[in-house]
Structure prediction request, 185 residues.
Amino acid sequence: FFKDLESQIEISNDELRKISFFNNPDDHLAIFKMADQKPLNENYLLVGLESINDPGNLGTIIRTCEWFGIKDIVCSLDSVDCYNPKVVQSAMGSLFRLDIKYLDLATYLDNIDTPIYGAYMNGVDVKEQELPKQLHLIMGNEANGISESISKYITNKVSIKNIGGNTESLNVAVATSILLHEFCS
Prediction:
């Protein structure tokens, strides 16, 4: 490990391929010291993720959260590791500017005083709701949505209106993006 984080070493493409998880790695590799965890800032919009399995989805959600000014993400213990190489790659650096915590989501939500919004196919259209600035937005698993054990904590079920009518559902990262746009506008 480098003590001086601004040290640079030039290596060949072959060397880079040997130490990378990817067959065709980018031309840069960085080593970071893990940041100290900060307490959650529950005075704003906070995103909670339940059982997100796909690394690309988590990376995209992290990147999207940064875009909309979200500072904290709470992931259930069974969500994909935010340091998974595919998450790191798809987060495009945003991972290092947000606080991401892995907690027992039910225990965490049991102690929340702010409204807890959850994304559901049969929720109230998000455009028809008056949205407070201080709340939690819970996004569920890609295939199963929000589980029954977490649903009992949801105070407001929201959905995104299906205008086309033929598509069954949205990708969780896309749905998160749309909802954050509505919540943060």
Observations:
- The mean pLDDT is 89.
